Task: structure prediction
Amino acid sequence: MASVTPATEGLRELVGLSREELLAEMTAMGAEAFRVRQLWHWIYNRGVTDIGAMTTLSKTFRAALAERCGVGRPAVTRALASVDGTRKWLLRFADGQEVECVHIPEEDRGTLCISSQVGCTLTCSFCHTGTQRLVRNLTAAEIVGQVMLARDALGEWPSPQDDRQLTNIVLMGMGEPLYNYDNVAQALRIVMDHEGLSLSRRKITLSTSGIVPMIRRCGAELGVNLAISLHAVTDELRDVLVPINRKYPLAELLDACRTYPGASNARRITFEYVMLKGVNDSPAEARELVRLLAGIPAKVNLIPFNPWPSAPYERSNAAAIKEFSDIVNAAGYSSPVRTPRGEDIMAACGQLKSASVRHRRSALGAEQAPDAP
Result:
């Protein structure tokens, strides 16, 4: 991975600013409005991390800009590569907080799973991230920075039009994106801007545990693909697996999905369903899932549970997963079984948790341990 400049404390970071905010910054400097388009090109199309490399700007202006502003990245504190090609980065921000993001290569695409919060607002009992308390929301700059850092690592500058290794983005990393909507929305608008990173809204999927009022706003304002972390077909069980269900129960959640703007057979809503042995994987639950999805353009992603240390659940066996999938498929809903990726580096779905939490605890334990005799 090429060397990049980390975000610098004390400088106004230009990454993550909207065009309007960038214009305000230029106005405050006494610079002309056309500088906004130039900077946008250098930051999001060329991917520069050094203002001095913006060669279409005068040396005088570059010098003045560099004294005031930066175009850095999150710092990479750990980079891991799986045997299956999956890559995971532990990223540290200026305040020392850390998140993880993951790139999953496939034959016809490359998907980047990004985080929206440090820790998570929710406490889903099957999810490792949910065991880490919420620390704070990520800023728009920190969300966009994950995409840009992955582009750095993949060597995808200037922004390629074809043969991209990063073709899709999913907000399925750490955090509940709809509880950080404003920053997520600003970041996604930057990502979708056709003069920069230029990813189509059809290539972006936002996954939510079911923040019903924000689902409608997301559809109306962003129009990205929607994924719902469902995981149960009764309120009684979903209250345990996905506790936000106590506030927004299944009936309300599914009504919001039926009216999600732009949902159609061509743009189906994805329902994510983690397969937990003896918990939610019976044929009767598969049939109930089919009943619940009636009238919703939908597909179901069946996710074999990805274990983590001290997890209270086990993965459903292959026969149970196949029978569940066959029932859903027979009803006309695509129900692929997601192949776990990056399990050897704890990068699979539901496994993300800031390695910094574990490392700091290990280091603290080592410091407090008595010296060996």
